[in-house]
Amino acid sequence: MTTDSTTQRREVPRADGPGRAPNSTEFEYSDGDFERVRRIIYEEAGIKLGDSKRTMAYSRLVRRVRALGMHRFSDYLDLVEKHGESERKAFVNALTTNLTAFFREPHHFPILESYLAPRHARRPAVIWCAGCSTGEEAYSIAMTLSAASIAGGAHILATDVDTNVLETAERGVYALERIENLPHGYKERFFLEGIGRKAGQVMVRPEIKSLVTFRQVNLLESSWPLRAPLDAIFCRNVMIYFDKPTQYAVLDRFAELLEPGGLLFAGHSENFTQGRIPFRSRGRTVYERQLGRGSSPYAAGRG
Ligand SMILES: C[S@@+](CC[C@H](N)C(=O)[O-])C[C@H]1O[C@@H](n2cnc3c(N)ncnc32)[C@H](O)[C@@H]1O
Fold this sequence. Notes:
The protein is α/β, with parallel strands linked by helices and 303 residues long. The protein folds into two domains: 2-95, Chemotaxis Receptor Methyltransferase Cher, domain 1 (Orthogonal Bundle), CATH 1.10.155; 108-289, Rossmann fold. The protein has ten helices and twelve strands. The protein has helices at residues 31-45, 54-67, 73-83, 85-95, 108-116, 136-148, 163-171, 186-190, 206-209, 244-257, and strands at 2-3, 10-11, 125-130, 154-160, 173-175, 191-193, 201-204, 212-216, 230-235, 258-266, 279-281, 286-289. The strands form three sheets. A seven-stranded mixed β-sheet has the order 8-4-3-9-10-12-11. The radius of gyration is 22 Å and the shape is globular. Bound molecules: S-adenosylmethionine. S-adenosylmethionine binds at residues 45-47, 96-100, 104, 131-133, 137, 160-162, 165, 218-220, 236-238, 241, 267.
C-alpha cells in the first residue's frame, strides 16, 4: 500500500489489476456510505437498490469521485446531497441501468399495430415511451407505425430520467450489429449506413426521427409534460426498479393519461395484477385502461 502525498488518497490494492486483492476498494466505502447512496437514488429516481448492488454502486460512482479529484467517497456524497444540482444529475445517470435493444420483447409491436390500425384519423396517435434509454424502443415503435401507415399519423414522446442516454437517443446513431435482428427489410428502409469513417454504424433515417421527440422526464416528478388522451404507453423494464407503492402511484397516473381502452406495455418481469388497478390484463404484459379510477393497494403513494 502506498500513500499519495499530493492527493492524500488512501491507495488500497484493487480487485481489477495485477497484485490487487479481491474485494478491496480504492476509496473507503462503508455500509453507511452505501446506505446514503441507496437513500439518495430512491429519493431522486425511485430506484430501490438491493443489498446485492453494493459493489455495483461503488464501481459506478467511483469514476465521479476520481474525476472530481476527491479523496473520500463520503465527501462525494456530501457534494451530491448538499450542493450539487448538476452532480445529482451525474449521480442518477451513473446509477441507472440502461439495457435495451431494438424490438426487445417483439410480441408487443404487432399488438400495438393492430390496436391502432382500425382507429379513425381524427388526430395523430400519441404514444409515450417512458424510460426509453438510448432510443431503440422509441424508434422501434416509430418504425412499426410507419410501416403500418397508421391513419392520421403518429407521434412518440420518448423520455428518460438519464440525460446521457437521451443524448445518444437524439443522435440516433448505432453500431451496425445492434440492428441485426430487425424485421425483414427494415434495415434498408429505416436506416442509413455509414461509409468511410462511419463504416460499421447506422443512423435512423430523418423521417423516423421526426416521429419521435426526446425529453427528460423523471417519473417521480409531480407533473409530467403530457396531456391526455394518449393511445398507448410503453413503460417496460423501468418500474422493476421501483417499490410497489411507487409502481402503483405511477400506474394510477398513467391511467389518467390513457384513453379508455388504451394500452400499457410493461416489461417481461413486471406484473401489475395485484390489487385493484385501473387496468385489465390482456396477457403477455399488456394492460388495457379500464373506465374509472383504480385505487392502489398501497397507502403511501409517491410521485
Ligand atoms: C432497463 S432500461 C429499459 C429501457 C427500455 N424501456 C427497454 O425496455 O428496453 C430502464 C430505463 O429506465 C430509466 N429510469 C429509471 N428510473 C427512472 C425514473 N424515475 N424516471 C424515468 N426513467 C427512469 C433508466 O434511466 C433506464 O434508461
